[in-house]
Write a structure and sequence with these properties.
Length: 472
């Protein structure tokens, strides 16, 4: 069963969907159990609540019991479904719109730990000395070890402007603490970046006015309007190619990604959603002519969710050329539901989504047309000797290759062919030369990678080179 959605249904598209989030208001009575078994569970739950209130020797309120029970319920679901208090819901929405009071970090979940990926200019984290690659351990004495979502961690870091948070991170073998001020940070989710502001080696025959470079950091409520304002500027009307940077964009509202796709993708399918009953909902673009000859899309392993909706639509339509790494692979959508007039809310995974050609995204991601990889930082609590096998060894070899010390294909094994590169890097970094990838060497590799990335963006340089070819 299919439902067509095009421009006539635009108002319906504008429901808030958080890759996805349809914000609805429910009354508790509408969620009462319908089946006898559900009613029995509800009765047992009420009995347990009453018994705890009557006999428990500690101090705990019915509200605290209810919230703990709800959080426990959602922990049994997938990693994207989550229960919110009213304040947590507000913080979550502000984080999507990039309007929040925090310390200015972006981070991702990787192998059950939370890793800093980017520092926001003007934030106290950058000024205080937090670095990309740092592992987040806890805040104000609360450990992140048992937390499973980035929202849980963010809720501990965000807070009222002018207050401080004691952030604990791990860097190599060191555990570091930073007392950081929460500040009001309001960032544009769509930003045009002038080529002359970038540390790039541009092709000699490139006309910067013909190539519009825009970075999208999230898909918030205003992102489509922000992008349209950039596209409508008089000085940008001459652009023939757009470079659209979706690297490290973890997603946001589905309606925002769909609106933007309808601004860029020629007439045709944008995305399809499928629920657990097999019912399909399809969204379309009615654009008669694309605004650019080509749209070069920059993606990496942190490009996720709503970003993958847009990237998939651009790629499958033929207007997009993807450069970078395979995307994250979050091909499921969540709806956000308000309970009891907004006192509580939750986001629940309710649909899978597919690219215009019907390709699934969940757990596989979207492959780039041109592979251009950027190494990850090394995250490890051990040293490595020749003969060892570990994922961190591949990361070390990736960095050595990126820096020009290693010419072979990186893998998880530390073998003799890697040793000359390790020794050469250690010598160049002022370290003792020894056949161990120890913590000093790992830290030096991470530091060298940060410096290289701040001086040169090889993926963007590749995009500039491809744009010149497209303009000929």
């Amino acid at each position: 069963m299919q439902k067509r959605r095009g421009q006539k249904m635009k108002k319906r598209i504008l429901k808030k969907v958080l890759a996805g989030a349809i914000v609805l208001t429910l009354i508790w009575s509408s969620m009462l159990p319908a089946a006898a078994d559900s009613a029995e569970y509800a009765r047992i739950f009420e009995q347990v609540m009453e018994r705890i209130e009557q006999d428990y020797t500690g101090n705990i309120s019915r509200q605290e019991l209810f919230e703990a029970a709800m959080k426990g319920m959602f922990q049994s679901l997938d990693e994207y479904s989550e229960f919110f208090t009213q304040e947590q819901a507000r913080e979550f929405e502000r984080s999507i719109d990039k309007k929040f009071e925090g310390i200015g970090i972006q981070f991702r979940r990787e192998n059950n730990i939370f890793v800093v990926t980017k520092l926001i200019a003007g934030g106290s984290a950058e000024e205080g000395g937090v670095l990309p690659g740092d592992i987040l351990l806890g805040a104000d004495g609360v450990s992140f070890a048992d937390m499973t979502t980035t929202e849980e961690v963010a809720n501990k870091i965000l807070g009222e402007k002018g207050t401080y948070v004691l952030l604990e991170v791990k860097r190599g073998r060191q555990t570091l603490s930073f007392r950081l001020e929460r500040r009001t940070l309001q960032l544009l989710t769509a930003e045009q970046i002038a080529w002359n502001r970038l540390a790039l080696t541009l092709p000699a025959d490139m006309n910067p006015q013909a190539v519009l470079y825009v970075a999208l950091t999230s898909f918030g409520s205003d992102t489509a309007a922000e992008l349209k304002a950039i596209m409508d500027k008089a000085e940008n009307k001459a652009a023939k190619v757009m470079v659209l940077d979706l690297r490290d964009n973890g997603g946001g509202y589905v309606h925002s990604a769909i609106e933007i796709a309808q601004m860029l993708v020629p007439k045709g399918r944008i995305v399809s959603f499928r629920d657990n009953q097999g019912e399909e909902e399809i969204y379309y673009s009615e654009l008669t002519q694309a605004p650019y000859r080509k749209i070069i899309v920059l993606v990496n392993k942190n490009t996720a969710s709503a970003s993958e909706i847009l990237a998939g639509a651009l790629k499958d339509s033929g207007i997009g050329l993807l450069i970078g790494e395979r995307t994250y692979g979050k091909g499921v959508a969540q709806e956000v539901l308000n309970i009891n007039g907004g006192q509580y809310s939750f986001k629940l995974t309710f649909k899978d989504f597919f690219t215009p050609k019907g390709t699934p995204v969940q757990k596989v991601g979207i492959a780039p047309d041109i592979l251009a990889e950027t190494p990850d930082y090394i995250i490890s609590d051990r040293r490595f000797f020749i003969g060892d096998e570990n994922e961190a060894i591949k990361k070390a070899e990736d960095i050595l290759r990126y820096l020009g010390y290693f010419q072979e294909t990186p893998d998880n094994k530390y073998e003799a062919n890697t040793l000359p590169a390790v020794l050469a890097f250690q010598k160049a970094s002022g370290l003792g030369e020894y056949p161990v990838i120890d913590f000093s060497t790992q830290n030096a590799l991470n530091t060298a990678l940060r410096a290289k990335l701040s001086q040169q963006d090889q993926v963007l340089e590749r995009a500039a080179a491809e744009s010149v070819k497209l303009l000929k």
